[in-house]
Write a structure and sequence with these properties.
The complex is a heterodimer.
Chain A lengths: L5 H6 L6 E4 L1 H6 L1 H16 L4 E2 L10 H5 L3 H17 L4 E4 L2 H10 L8 E4 H10 L14 E4 L13 H9 L3 E2 L30 H10 L5 E4 L2 H13 L7 E4 H8 L3
Parallel strand pairs in A: 1-2, 1-3, 3-4, 5-6, 5-7, 7-8
Chain B lengths: L3 H28 L11 H13 L8 H30 L4 H6 L1 H30 L4 H4 L6 H25 L2 H6 L18 H25 L7 H10 L13 H11 L31 H9 L5 H5 L1 H4 L6 H21 L11 H4 L3 H5 L6 H5 L6 H15 L5 H13 L18
Helix pairs in contact in B: 1-3, 1-9, 1-15, 2-10, 3-5, 5-7, 7-9, 10-12, 12-15, 15-19
The chains are: A alpha/beta, B mainly alpha.
């Protein structure tokens, strides 16, 4: 798979249209890597001139910040900003709502001002510019429910982009009882991904998976690699792996378009 | 002697309002114990939020039943208070229904008729509220933080309102001349039969008593506010005005940290540099919050504004899955501690004397703080834009940056970020491997 880096681009004296910020999950987590690859396939299909930072990319510092470590966050932020500004990056797209939120909202006051897109927004833009079509036959008839990532939804009021893409797939979109601004968290945010939960009566991801299963879906769609992990674990816990799959919207589009 | 009632009334009014003003000053002083934060930008949007959310109750109706009932009580309360203006004038000058002459029978009748209908609706709404709180099985009213005073407080407010509305209607029903006019007694006419056979004198005594207890009740209720969760009827307005306007996902970047990080990353910085003259004595700024004075004044105002409805807690994923965390309780504990600090200042001639306690541990435990997913459900839910999440994060910052007291797994995550640029222990050089797998 051809994934140009900024360093390559620079060596050729080129400036890509957009930087794909892969994020730690998208780079290292086996499940999330598939999302990165699916998104790259879409970028290729739409002939988007993009690049990644590759080994020059580092954690945005989101998890450190939510955990309370402002020092580590700002160190990471300033290092990343130095790299991004060095390459004169103007536009960034990412499949990770946490990176999206941090780059878009928390980097500007530290000197990193970019136009930042969540991949669902970016794909929507490609469609509206006539650069990409979504095949609405392949997945026709499937029932899909969408789990709103907190850092995309409530945190940044992006509710429609992912839903618009799902509708374009020709599938049945079934909303959970808690959706959009009242959506329940998957349990991973605020650095919870990296620790065990406090003592309680239930795991949050199980509760959210139950919300999703109530809609009797074939597919639980997400737009966040961490939500994806949590929902996938929830489906395993509920022993529903045979009936229900958890997919990122980028994966669904890649699948629909036979990429 | 004929002016005795007027004098008593004036004194009661002055005392009631004076005591209230004194407490409001105390409230304002306590809120100002918080750190400065600039919320003066974007005035049109702030005003719009205040009008929509506080005045217009736009977030209340997201839960339609309690939302509509609340609007009835709220509108009733505000509009019926026009009547209080008449009562105050009557009380001070010894007049009776002064507005009747001024406004004319028809318009006055229309006004009082409206008040009576609203009073009746408020009464019914308040009964339903009471049933919801005490009989039906609504989880957010049954949480453990609602035991004791918070539960009683909620009920006392409802009793106050029931009694005030009853007195208003009884006052009208026993006002013989008002009933004879027959305009505006829309509801009270149905109470009149209860007093069938009473002498005119007895009726007058009942009318006067109801009138007096009604206005004194209002003054007592006014002063009850400060000691109660009911302060929201006033603070909802500044609270929505000064609320955060930025995207909910955007957390503040601590400036004190920025300064140090910049210095650390500056290759030209002299690591042995002496602080500039005059800077030496400055105590290094504390990172994060361990007590109320470390929070900003908006966060402190939030705590006084909270009316403990529990919508936040009922939407909190941690709370829904049985964890200790309850965003409402975060606000209640912050206010309790702030009140304690305020009493300490009062008792020590205007100066806070260390009491060996703080918000962290003595009120809010790390277990609660670490259970938060930062999902913003509580912030989204709050009908008056209170932000419990910002307090949780400020306290986490203290735990991590001042006490290095993060859970072990988070320490590992942070070490990984520091060393490998990722929360997991992977090699930075492998960061692009995903592109060539499959």
């Amino acid at each position: 798979m051809i994934v140009p880096t900024m360093a390559d681009m620079m060596a050729q004296g080129k400036q890509p249209e957009v930087l794909f910020w892969v994020g730690a999950a998208g780079s290292y987590d086996d499940r999330a890597k598939k999302i990165s690859r699916a998104f790259v396939k879409i970028l290729h299909q739409a002939n988007v001139d993009f690049a990644v930072l590759g080994t020059e990319e580092s954690s945005t510092g989101d998890a450190a910040k939510r955990a309370g470590n402002e020092f580590l966050f700002q160190m990471q932020a300033m290092m990343n900003i130095e790299v991004l500004n060095g390459y004169e990056i103007k536009k960034i797209v990412t499949c990770d709502p946490h990176s999206f939120n941090t780059l878009k909202n928390e980097y500007p006051s530290l000197g990193g001002k970019y136009e930042v897109f969540h991949h669902t927004q970016f794909i929507q833009k490609l469609i509206s510019e006539g650069r990409l079509d979504i095949n609405n036959i392949t997945l026709k008839g499937k029932k899909v429910t969408f789990h709103d990532p907190c850092y995309l939804g409530r945190a940044n009021d992006v509710y429609e982009s992912p839903r618009d893409l799902i509708r374009r797939l020709g599938v049945n979109l079934a909303e959970m009882k808690r959706n959009k601004s009242t959506a329940l968290c998957c349990g991973a945010g605020g650095a919870q991904m990296f620790k065990d939960a406090e003592k309680g009566t239930k795991e949050i991801n199980v509760l959210r998976t139950e919300d999703a299963l109530e809609t009797k879906p074939n597919i639980i769609a997400t737009g966040c690699p961490y939500c994806n992990t949590m929902m996938t674990d929830g489906i395993k816990f509920k022993e529903k792996e045979k009936e229900v799959v958890v997919k990122d919207i980028a994966e669904l589009i890649a699948e629909a378009n036979n990429l | 002697m004929q002016y005795l009632p007027n004098i008593i009334f004036a004194l009661a009014l002055a005392f009631g309002i004076g005591f209230f003003v004194m407490n409001i000053r105390k409230l304002s002083r306590n809120i100002k114990l918080g750190k400065d934060i600039d919320r003066t930008d974007n005035k049109p949007e702030r005003l719009k939020n205040m009008i929509m959310i506080a005045l217009g109750q736009s977030k209340m109706v997201k839960r339609p039943l309690s939302g509509v009932l609340h609007i009835i009580v709220y509108v009733g309360f505000i509009i019926i208070n026009i009547e209080v203006l008449e009562i105050i004038i009557d009380g001070l000058f010894g007049t009776h229904r002064i507005f009747k002459g001024v406004l004319g029978d028809t318009f006055y009748g229309f006004l009082i008729g409206t008040f009576e209908i609203l009073a009746f609706l408020v009464f019914v709404a308040v009964i339903i509220f009471w049933l919801r709180r005490n009989i039906s099985n609504i989880q957010r009213f049954l949480s453990k933080e609602m035991n004791g005073w918070p539960k009683n407080d909620g009920n006392y407010i409802l009793y106050f309102e029931m009694v005030l509305m009853t007195l208003f209607l009884v006052m009208n029903a026993t006002d013989v001349s008002f009933q004879q006019t027959g305009i505006g007694n829309v509801i009270s006419q149905f109470i009149v039969p209860l007093f069938d056979g009473f002498s005119e004198e007895t009726l007058h005594t009942i009318e006067r008593s109801a009138w007096w207890i009604h206005i004194l009740g209002i003054l007592v209720f006014l002063n009850y506010l400060y000691y109660s969760k009911h302060l929201h009827i006033l603070l909802a307005f500044p609270n929505t005005y000064f609320a955060n306007l930025k995207p909910k996902g955007q957390f503040t970047n601590l400036e004190s940290v920025t300064k140090e990080v910049k210095l650390m990353m500056d290759p030209d910085a002299d690591p042995y540099a002496m602080p500039a003259e005059g800077e030496e004595e400055a105590e290094p700024e504390k990172f994060g919050a361990s007590d109320v004075a470390d929070l900003n004044w908006v966060q402190l105002m939030n705590s006084y504004t909270c009316t403990e409805c529990g919508r936040c807690t009922s939407a909190c994923p941690a709370n829904l899955t049985g964890k200790e965390l309850s965003p409402r309780n975060i606000m209640m504990k912050t206010r309790d501690r702030l009140e304690e600090v305020g009493r300490n200042i009062d008792a020590n001639k205007g100066k806070f004397v260390d009491d060996g306690k703080q918000l962290l541990n003595d009120y809010i435990t790390p277990e609660e703080l670490w259970a938060c997913t930062s999902c913003n459900a509580c912030v989204e839910e709050c009908p008056v834009n209170i932000d419990p999440l910002s307090i949780i994060i400020d306290m986490r910052r203290y735990l991590v940056m001042e006490e290095s007291a993060a859970p072990q797994e988070l320490n590992m995550m942070m070490t990984n970020v520091e060393n490998n640029g990722a929360p997991w222990q992977y090699n930075q050089q492998d960061r692009l491997n995903w592109a060539n797998e499959e």
